[in-house]
Design goal:
alpha/beta; Rossmann fold; 4 domains; seven-stranded mixed sheet; 24 helices; 38% helix; flat
């Protein structure tokens, strides 16, 4: 249908005539004020809107509204940069062809009923439009698109009712939305003062897509941060490149991704495949690319506006001040939930606060200033200034508990203290008078970030600190850990296996090539051989049936643990072979593995999956049967270094298991991180040869880290 996966991002110059036009035409204008063409014209050419020429095109009229109306694009007195096409689907192709022949820079297609229908002839119809546009190096937005808004130029390029409160001052936010309706809904935040530079939508994205639009905003000086909401895309690596352009331009990119489907896990063979689905892959890739993710769409614009206003944090501590003790408690709860540090003030700051706050207040952090300070505005500013001056704090959070005219002045007081110290102030609009006095002033203050939720405020502050950490390590390349020649040896082992799923022995040999410690074993075919091998290994031992057709041994009942005598081994051999032969269809059985029983320890799963969009992924979680049950995992695009592997381990809710629990020795985290990094290198090197990989479990106790099972599914 399209070839987005085959082309690089458009640079800003190739999109400027589309999104920053000097002259515009609207095809399909009408005397009917409710028609799409008439509404688009009114939105673009209305008072205080676009200042350049806007040409009307419709062969049925000689003039409309006292302005000339032209019969075609060819008849226009000059070539427009951008043409908005508001005609029925069957008439669109002729208009697009006329635009291409005239040398138009870009066209916006409102008509629907193309590829989104899934009908082959409609897909071909959309492809013809793209072919015409590409041949003329003309950009095409849509079809099935509601248009776009460049608020700074007054281009309100849509057929719908759109918010526009004038050209925004800096710092402004650019918004990209794959969904036109959601984009329009978010853009109404302008009504309570949010500074929005653009709203860009893409409809069917036959040509220009979300990634192109994010890259365009990265180069546009009108916005200082970019917000994006999307569901998915055929080649998300282009989006990662767009994110890199944002970072290079110093613009934070904040994303809310719609859709939580895990379709990629449905055909999974391993535990890894079942927990490393499409949504998890997106999150991992975007976070590694420095994208700031918000889980709730209601947090998207507040968070992006915060990042547009906030300087880099000067300290990780956050101060909280309020005239309500209850509000202080609410904010403290959310700070703890989001991992935001609220350190106590320094002795000097405490002394200043004690002189300003009544004895029934609390000069700590949170700082309950009490309502008494409202009687003396200079004392309120002095409290704000004292906290902002404290080097332990990079931000000050103040809840706006009640909206009335007298409270509006406090916003300027708060902003002045932030400006004096080069920090950011956060105003949490706690009052439910959402558009009350002070709302616009708060949104538009360049040193005050406004939030409609305490949780969103603290989450944004936590993301602010993580983003600084990401910038500090950006571009630092982790050293490779695997031995020289590991990739070639492992490739030969994988290719030599005749099985679609490697046996455990074969899988462990591949791991060993990368320096991953594995348990030793012997393959036997009789009960007596098993008893002899157990005697040689030393009791206790483990028996496992080796079969490429039984990937999950526990579920099939073909494992026996902690066998302490030759008789127990012989009995267990008979049982596991019987269970294996009961599997349907009858599996191919190579024999039974005899392994020493590894002493108990923390069980960790490390796996990998080759994602069709992002390539090799590495995942870490609690091992054994709990990985799918608890879904307590951390995921990254492979390869990762040991530092990133340590961060993955630290993300696990069950990480206390590694820190020593109920008398067990703490696990050597550096050693475990090294094993994770080595397995990630395996996945990256062998991405053409494997589909999934499970090391489950790694048994970890102190410095001993040992892979006792392995599953590798070959690529089809």
């Amino acid at each position: 249908m399209t070839d987005l996966a085959q082309r690089p991002l458009y640079d800003a110059a190739r999109l400027s005539r589309l999104f920053a036009p000097r002259h515009i035409a609207v095809v399909g204008v009408s005397a009917n004020p409710q028609a799409f063409g008439a509404m688009t014209l009114a939105n673009i050419a209305g008072p205080g809107r676009f200042e350049g020429p806007v040409y009307r095109v419709n062969a049925r009229y000689a003039e409309l509204g006292g302005q000339p109306c032209y019969p075609s694009i060819a008849a226009l007195p000059q070539t427009p940069d951008c043409v908005f096409v508001a005609v029925p689907r069957d008439a669109v192709e002729a208009v697009v062809r006329d635009c291409a022949e005239r040398g138009v820079g870009g066209v916006v297609l409102f008509a629907s009923g193309y590829a989104e229908t899934g009908l082959p002839d409609r897909r071909h119809q959309q492809q013809r439009l793209l072919d015409i546009a590409r041949a003329a190096d003309m950009r095409l937005l849509g079809p099935n698109c509601v248009g776009y808004m460049n608020y700074g130029l007054g281009v309100i390029g849509t057929f719908g009712i759109a918010s526009f409160i004038g050209k925004p001052p800096a710092p402004a936010v650019g918004l990209v939305s794959q969904s036109g309706a959601i984009g329009a809904a978010l853009a109404q935040a302008q009504e309570h003062g949010l500074r929005l530079s653009h709203l860009l939508t893409c409809g069917n994205a036959s040509d220009v897509d979300v990634a192109d639009q994010v890259a365009y905003l990265a180069a546009d000086p009108a916005c200082r941060a970019v917000a994006c909401v999307f569901e998915g895309m055929s080649d998300p690596t282009r989006f990662l490149e767009a994110a890199a352009r944002c970072h290079d331009a110093g613009k934070p990119l904040v994303v809310h991704k719609l859709g939580t489907s895990e379709r990629g896990a449905q055909a999974a063979v391993s535990h890894t495949g079942s927990v490393a689905g499409s949504q998890a892959a997106y999150r991992a890739a975007l976070q590694q690319a420095g994208v700031i993710l918000v889980d709730e769409i209601e947090a998207l614009l507040d968070t992006t506006s915060f990042f547009a206003k906030a300087p880099p944090p000067r300290a990780r501590g956050v101060a909280v001040a309020a005239v309500s003790g209850g509000a202080c408690i609410l904010l403290a709860d959310q700070a703890e939930s989001q991992g935001v540090d609220l350190p106590p003030p320094s002795a000097a700051t405490l002394s200043r606060l004690e002189a300003l706050i009544p004895e029934y207040g609390s000069p700590g952090n949170p700082c309950d200033m009490t309502a008494q300070v409202l009687a003396t505005p200079q004392d309120l500013h002095a409290c704000f200034e004292a906290l902002m001056a404290d080097p332990a704090y990079g931000a000050l959070v103040v809840p706006h508990t009640f909206a009335y005219d007298a409270a509006t002045a406090r916003i300027a007081t708060l902003g002045r203290a932030a400006a004096e110290h080069g920090k950011i102030a956060c105003n949490v609009w706690l009052t439910q008078h959402l558009e009350g006095p002070g709302a616009v002033e708060s949104e538009q203050h360049p040193q005050v970030a406004t939030f409609r939720s305490m949780r969103h405020c603290m989450a944004a502050l936590a993301a602010w600190h993580r983003h600084q950490d990401w910038h500090a390590r950006r571009g630092v390349r982790a050293p490779r850990l695997s031995p020289p020649g590991a990739a070639a040896r492992a490739a030969a082992l994988i290719e030599a296996s005749p099985h679609a799923t490697l046996t455990e022995r074969e899988g462990k040999a591949v791991l060993a090539a990368y320096g991953v410690p594995v348990v030793r074993e012997v393959l036997v075919n009789t009960a007596d051989e098993a008893a002899a091998a157990a005697q040689q290994a030393g009791f206790p031992v483990v028996l496992k049936v080796e079969s490429p057709d039984i990937p999950h041994k526990t579920e099939a009942g073909v494992i026996r643990l902690n066998l302490r005598s030759a008789d127990e081994v012989r009995t267990a051999f008979t049982e596991v072979m019987a269970n294996a032969q009961a599997v349907s269809p009858l599996p191919h059985i190579n024999g039974v593995l005899v392994q020493p029983m590894v002493p108990a320890g923390a069980e960790i799963m490390v796996g990998a999956r080759i994602d069709p969009q992002f390539g090799p992924l590495v995942v870490v979680g609690l091992g054994g049967i709990f990985v799918e049950l608890l879904r307590d995992t951390a995921l990254r695009v492979a390869p990762v270094g040991t530092d990133e592997a340590r961060r993955m381990l630290d993300e696990l809710a069950g990480r206390r298991v590694l820190q020593g629990f109920r008398g067990s020795a703490p696990v050597a985290i550096d050693g475990l991180a090294e094993v994770v990094a080595r397995i990630s290198e395996l996945a990256a090197d062998q991405r053409q040869r494997i589909a999934e990989l499970d090391v489950n479990p790694l048994i970890c106790a102190g410095d001993r880290i040992l892979a006792v099972d392995a599953l590798i599914a070959r690529a089809p």
